[in-house]
Design goal:
The complex is a heterodimer.
Chain A: E1 8-10, E2 19-25, H1 29-38, E3 45-50, E4 56-60, E5 63-67, H2 69-73, E6 75-79
Antiparallel strand pairs in A: 1-6, 2-3, 2-6, 3-4, 4-5
Chain B: E1 9-15, H1 21-29, E2 46-52, E3 55-61, H2 73-83, E4 88-94, H3 98-110, E5 115-120, H4 122-127, E6 130-132, H5 134-141, E7 145-147, H6 156-167, H7 181-194, H8 198-201, H9 206-215, H10 218-225, H11 234-248, H12 252-271, E8 272-274, H13 284-292, H14 298-341, H15 346-364, H16 367-383, H17 385-399, H18 407-413, H19 417-422, H20 430-439, H21 449-459, H22 464-489, E9 499-502, H23 510-544, H24 557-569, H25 577-586, H26 592-600, H27 607-615, H28 618-630, H29 635-645, H30 648-675
Parallel strand pairs in B: 1-3, 1-4, 4-5, 5-7
Antiparallel strand pairs in B: 2-3, 6-8
The chains are: A alpha+beta, B alpha/beta.
The complex binds guanosine-5'-triphosphate and magnesium ion.
Chain lengths: 80, 679
């Protein structure tokens, strides 16, 4: 079921416009649960709307969510 | 259930942040709760009532929450209320984001809540060509589903019908998600143990309790830890947990969450269709955001917006202020004339004219700028810009060891510090929350405006906007430096993460803006009619005591009080007993500063402006404004700090700290200014 390791990269590395699938969240338990209940769940697709200095903006379904770089670093994703 | 027939039915409004709960609350109860286009507007329980078909309902509007997991203060409030068995839960969801919103819905259903699912924002779903099969959704979830557009009251009649139908109904079989076989086995084992204790399963459904124990839900664990018989259950819980963790390689909350999302995915596949969907498109909001949140333009644009807000506030309100001033002068003259003709005692005329009309009038003059300021803040809130402000300021806030979310309480502080302090409830981290709370009083609230407008009008008429802007900036700088210092020495800890929804831009409605402005602005008028009148009367009386003393002389009680304090203020350039008194009474409410000056200067013909001109220099006037900005928060703010920090120690520290900062800054400005040749 798991995707091969080599294709995983942190969300913070994904350029604007790309769509990726969440594979793993490696932050501490508290933030992992927080993100989970906000909809950042394994297997969910997110699209990066903007990614330069400062927080990222990602599209999760129709919503836009700002994520600080620190968090985005700990969300491991796989390119489509 | 039948016995409760006569009692009012309690309805809880629950849902994700910014899904439209407060809008629905207003539609149901006809009240005017604060609505805004950003997540985290409501941070406390708000109650209202309505009747329908001869039945009374008590509606409770709750803070938004993504789940019952409760990570922040406002979410804890929502969760605790939902755990307290409201009769009906109206779950408000954003129709354009079912996939995310239904997560909370499932948790509520699993808990056994009598639930009505409200698909709000159905207008936006329509615009995005999202079709939801309401009937199918209702069947699959086993719960009534209603579509609404809360601000336009669409769908409210149907919702009311559903609520009434649901009300009398016997508790039905609880909704259940079928988890994977191995998980179900463990749930069953725990459930079997729990059903041995009916006193427990009366309160909560046993299956739900078993799941919560497995998930390690903190509130439930706390409650269960107090029950002696739980020692027979806990070993089984631990054993089950261990088995599942071994098998899945994940903690249980994650395991359950994944399964719930799995359920939602299938549900949505069956009930929802996106027509004409183009993958990878950018919405209008995205395109606006490209400019607004731009890495270089974002911050300048924000500063420009704020500058515009303040300039407009003053430019537009200036003529209005003039009219109201004229009106009150006219009132004073007329009142004196009429009262003298009626043969009323001079003493009483002086009380009414110099005390009440003059004192209150000198404050009410500032209604226009205050209303305009609130109007501007509503515009920022309702459009959705406020969430972007948090986003662009995140980088600067990082330098302080805080993050963007802490910026929203500061912005709200420009209106009033009390809601600003309450808004800190949405912060995840206690240290951040304390810092954000304690620096909030340095943000210049609307109640300080009268002082600025009065003094700048007298001394800096030509650069009024800029001088006032400089005071706002000074407040921000002091807040920032304080935050930095607190973070380093008092409330240490790593910078927390900034995670926040950016709602789509929405065009504010004129009605919404005016309601908003009125609700907040009118509290200022109410204050003028209560606290400020009371203070003005009190000061007037103290200025006439002991009997026989000349009104408002330094022999009067108030004069003696002020004279004792004045030397402390002398280094700041305004060491007169009148200013001392105005600052002391200004602690009750900052508006009182101007009211007090009006009363103690005795005034009469010349007006408080003229008296200010005689008693101050431009430099000492500036120092005085700085002092008013910083010195001590008003009583309401002190109360808010006490409540939210839950500590007298922190509150007293905040008072002492701000007094020292305010005094030092005022003295510095006056002394350095003099050295530089200002006067
Ligand atoms: N287009 C549209 N906008 C809506 C609808 N319902 C609410 N809104 C807007 O959505 C925003 C959020 O509404 P609120 O009622 O404050 O939401 P809330 O759920 O109380 O938000 P929090 O208190 O922050 O959790 C406001 O700008 C409303 O005007 C709707 O049905 N359609
Ligand atoms: Mg609300």
């Amino acid at each position: 079921m798991r995707a091969p390791e080599r294709t995983l990269l942190p969300l913070s590395f994904v350029p604007a416009g790309k769509e990726v699938t969440i594979r793993e969240i490696t932050s501490g338990e508290r933030w992992r649960h927080r993100l989970l209940e906000m909809g950042f769940n394994r297997g969910t697709t997110v699209r990066v709307i903007s990614n330069h200095h400062g927080p990222l903006i990602v599209a999760l379904y129709e919503n836009r969510i700002a994520l600080s770089r620190g968090v985005a670093h700990k969300i491991l994703v796989q390119e489509e | 259930m039948k016995i409760l027939e006569a009692k009012e039915t309690v309805i809880a409004l629950a849902g994700n942040p910014n899904s439209g709960k407060s809008s629905l609350f207003n539609a149901l109860t006809g009240s005017r709760q604060h609505v805004g286009n950003w997540p985290g507007v409501t941070v406390e329980k708000k109650e209202g009532r309505f009747s329908y078909r001869g039945l009374t309902f008590r509606v409770v509007d709750l803070p938004g929450t993504y789940s019952l997991g409760a990570h922040t203060e406002d979410e804890i409030i929502a969760r605790d209320f939902l755990f307290s068995h409201p009769d009906i839960v109206v779950n408000v969801v954003d129709s354009t984001n079912l996939e995310r919103n239904l997560y909370l819905t499932l948790q509520l259903l699993e808990m056994g809540a009598s639930l009505v699912l409200v698909l709000n924002m159905s207008d936006e779903a329509k615009a995005k060509h999202i079709e939801i099969d309401q009937g199918r959704l209702s069947t699959l979830l086993g719960t009534p589903v209603v579509m609404t557009v809360a601000p336009r009251k669409e769908g409210i009649p149907e919702l009311l019908e559903r609520i009434v139908t649901l009300r009398g109904r016997e508790p039905r079989e609880t909704f259940r998600i079928k988890y994977r076989e191995d998980i179900e086995e463990e749930i069953a084992k725990i459930e079997a143990l729990l059903t041995l204790y009916p006193e427990l399963t009366h309160r909560y459904p046993s299956r739900w309790l078993a799941i919560k124990l497995l998930e390690g839900e903190k509130r439930i664990l706390q409650e269960m830890n107090r029950q002696s018989f739980m020692k027979h259950v806990f070993p089984q819980v631990e054993e089950s947990k261990k088995r599942l963790i071994d098998r899945y390689g994940e903690d249980l909350e994650t395991i359950f969450a994944n399964q719930r999302y799995h359920f939602i995915t299938r549900l949505v596949q069956e009930c929802m269709r996106r027509k004409g969907e183009e993958k990878g498109t950018y919405t209008l909001s995205d395109r606006i955001d490209r400019v607004v949140t731009h890495r270089f333009f974002g911050i300048p644009l924000f500063l420009f917006t704020m500058w515009l807000v303040f300039q407009c506030t003053f430019a537009l309100s200036e003529p209005l202020v003039g009219w109201i001033e004229t009106l009150f002068t006219f009132l004073q003259e007329k009142a004196t004339f009429i009262l003298e003709n009626l043969g009323v005692a001079d003493f009483f005329i002086s009380f009414l004219v110099d005390g009440v009309i003059n004192g209150v009038g000198s404050v009410l003059v500032f209604v226009p700028p205050i209303f305009l300021l609130f109007l501007a803040i509503s515009l920022l809130e309702d459009s959705g810009y406020i969430a972007r402000a948090a986003y662009v300021m995140d980088r600067l806030m990082h330098i302080l060891g805080l993050h963007g979310k802490s910026f929203i309480p500061l912005l709200l502080g420009f209106g009033c510090n009390v809601p600003g302090i309450m808004a800190t409830r949405t912060l995840e981290n206690r240290e951040d929350r304390m810092i954000t709370m304690l620096v909030n009083p340095f943000i210049s609230c609307a109640a300080r405006l009268p002082v600025y407008v009065l003094f700048t009008g007298v001394f800096f008429a030509r650069h009024q906007g800029w001088i006032i802007f400089s005071l706002y900036l000074l407040g921000i700088v002091v807040a920032i430096l304080t935050a930095k210092w607190f973070k380093r020495y008092l409330f240490k800890g790593e910078t927390s993460h900034f995670v926040m929804e950016l709602p789509p831009y929405r065009i504010p409605t004129v009605k919404g803006l005016f309601i908003h402005m009125w609700e907040r602005g009118s509290s200022f008028i109410k204050k003028a009619g209560t606290i400020i009148i009371a203070m003005v009367v009190l000061i007037w009386i103290l200025a006439n005591l002991p009997f026989g003393v000349e009104y408002a002389s330094n022999e009067s009680i108030i004069g003696k009080l002020g004279t004792a304090m004045a030397p402390l203020l002398a280094p700041a350039g305004f060491g007169t007993w009148q200013t001392a008194v105005s600052l002391i009474f200004g602690i009750v409410a900052k508006e009182v500063v101007v009211g007090t000056l009006a009363v103690v200067y005795g005034v009469g013909e010349e007006g408080v402006g003229e008296m200010v001109r005689q008693h101050f220099t431009p430099l000492s006037a500036y120092a005085f404004m700085v002092m008013t900005l910083l010195y001590i928060p008003c009583v309401a703010t002190i109360g808010a700090i006490r409540r939210e920090s839950n500590s007298w120690g922190i509150t007293i520290f905040a008072l002492g700290y701000s007094l020292i900062v305010g005094w030092t800054m005022a003295v510095l400005i006056f002394q350095v200014g003099q050295l530089l040749g200002f006067h």
